Amino acid sequence: MSSTPTANATIRINGPLPGANARAILERRDATTVRGLYRSCPIVADHATGATVTDVDGNVFIDLAGGIGALNAGHCPPEITAAIHNQVDRLLHLCSIVGTYESMVQLNEKLHEIVPIRGPKKTLLCNTGVEAGENAVKIARYATGRQGIIVFEGAFHGRSLLGMTMTSKYDLFKRGFGPFASEVYRVPFPYEYREKIDGMSTEEFCELRIRDLKKAFVAQIDPTSVAAVIIEPVQGEGGFVPAPPAYLRALRELTAQHGILLASDEVQTGFGRTGKMFAIEHTPGCGTEWDVDMVIMAKSIGSGLPIAAVTGKAEVMDKPHIGGLGSTYGGNPVACAAAVATIDYLRDHQLADRATEIGDVCRDYFSRWQAKHDTIGDVRCLGAMCAIEFVKDRVTKEPNSVLPPLIVEEAFQRGLIMIRAGLYGSCIRSLVPLVITDDQLHEAMQALEAAIDAAVQRAETT
C-alpha cells in the first residue's frame, strides 16, 4: 500500500457548500420530511460510484459513512447492478409466502456457505436489521419456551418497539416513545477503554463482566427463563466497541450451560467490514470448535437494497409452526439477486482482506492524531470499522460530545461524508466502502486531520 497520496485528488469542491441546487432541494426536504429524521450532512446526492458521491452541484465527496455500513462493496458496483437489472426485467415480486423463486433459494444457500455455524442451517429472509432481530427473538422464544431476552448497555438493535426496547442510548433513540416491551434485561458490555481498571488484564476484566451476567441471573431473571442473549461482537452505534474474544467465549460457555441461545447481531459488522466475513470469527475457534445459535444480518448484505436475514441452527430455526413466520417483502427477488451478487463480489475481490489493510492505515493516522490532540481519548479499528473517541480529560475520560458534530461539519466542508457514534455521542466513525483506493484513503485521512484540527481550534475559542 502506498504511504502518500498522488497528486490526482478525488475530492472536488466547486464553491460554497451546500451549493445552490442542494440548498433548494434541502428546503424541499425540510418542508416535507418529519423533523425527527436526523441528517448528518447537508449533501444532496446525484450519483455515486465506488467510495465517491457527486452532489447535484457537481461537487465530489469521499464517503466515510458508507450508508451507515450498507455499502461495503461500494456505490453501484457494476457486477451487482447488472444482477439487479437482470432480475428487474424478469420478476419484481411474488412474496415468499405465496411461492418460490430461485434468487431466494440461492441467497439462503450462499448464507449457509459463509455463516460460521456448524451443522445444518436454515434462514429466514427479512427487510431490515430490526426486523431480523425481532424474528430472532420470536424464534428463540418459541424454540426454548422461555420469554426473557438479555441485551447490553450501549447496544443498538433498531427503532421498532422491540428494537428500541433492546437498544441502549435512551435520550436519542427512546425518549418519548415508551412504554416499551417486557421481558428484556440489560447488562454491562465489556467496554475496555471506559471500564477496565488500570493494571487489570483483559481476561480479568472479561471475568468481571461475566460476573455481571451471573449476578443478573440472580437479581433480574432466573436463567431458566432466558430464551436468548443477543450481542453485537462490535457495538455499532455504541461507538465501535469490540467485545474481547475472551468474553465471547465465556459468554458462549455460560449460555450453553443454562440452555440459553446466543445470537450475534452482525447488522453493521458483517460482510467483510472487520476483516472477516463476520466479526464473531475474530474469536478463535468460531465455526469449528464452537458457534453461536443465530446470526442476524442486514445492511451490506444487499449493497444498498433493503434485505436482511437470520441464519441459525436448523433445529432452532425450524421450531416455530408453519405460518408463524413471514413477511410480504422479506426476501424480495430483486433484493435477493443483489445479495447473491454482493456475496460473490465480496469474496471474488477479497474485500475482507482489504478491510484489514484499510484499518491499518486508519489506525496509523488516528494514533498520530491522538499524540497531537489530548482530546482524543481512544482509537479503535477492527478491520475497516474505525472510530475515534473524544474526551474532555484523558484521566477522567469524561466524554466530549461537543467535538464530533463540529468535526463532521468541518469534514463536509473539506469533501468528506461522515457520521458520529457512541453512547455519549463522543465518537466519529469511518465505514468507508472497502473498494476505496489507496490514494483516496490517504486523501480522506488528510482531509479528516484538517477537519479535526479546525474543530479543536473552534472548540477552544468558544
Quickly list its features.
aminotransferase; four-stranded mixed β-sheet; seven-stranded mixed β-sheet; Aspartate Aminotransferase, domain 1; transaminase activity; single chain; 16% strand; 462 residues
Descriptive account of the structure:
- This protein has a seven-stranded mixed β-sheet with strand order 4-12-11-10-7-5-6, with helices on both faces. Strands 1-2-3-15 form a four-stranded mixed β-sheet. Strands 13-14-17-16 form a four-stranded antiparallel β-sheet, with helices on one face.
- It starts with 19 loop residues before the first helix and ends with a helix.
- The protein has helices at 20-32, 66-69, 78-88, 102-114, 129-144, 161-166, 170-173, 192-195, 202-219, 245-257, 314-317, 333-348, 351-372, 403-413, 438-460; strands spanning 45-49, 52-55, 60-63, 121-126, 148-152, 184-187, 226-231, 234-235, 241-242, 261-265, 294-297, 308-313, 376-382, 385-390, 416-417, 419-421, 427-430.
- It has 15 helices and 17 strands.
- It folds into two domains: 20-73 and 350-460, Alpha-Beta Complex (Aspartate Aminotransferase, domain 1); 80-348, Aspartate Aminotransferase, domain 2, CATH 3.40.640.10.
- The longest helix has 23 residues, at 438-460.
- It is globular and about 60 Å long.
- Helix content is 39%, strand content 16%.
- α3 runs antiparallel to α12, α13 (351-372) runs parallel beside α15 and α14 (403-413) packs across α15 (438-460).
- It is of the alpha/beta class.
- Its cofactor is pyridoxal 5'-phosphate.
- Pfam families: Aminotran_3.
- One of its GO terms (molecular function) is transaminase activity.
- Belongs to the class-III pyridoxal-phosphate-dependent aminotransferase family.
- Keywords: Aminotransferase, Pyridoxal phosphate, Transferase.
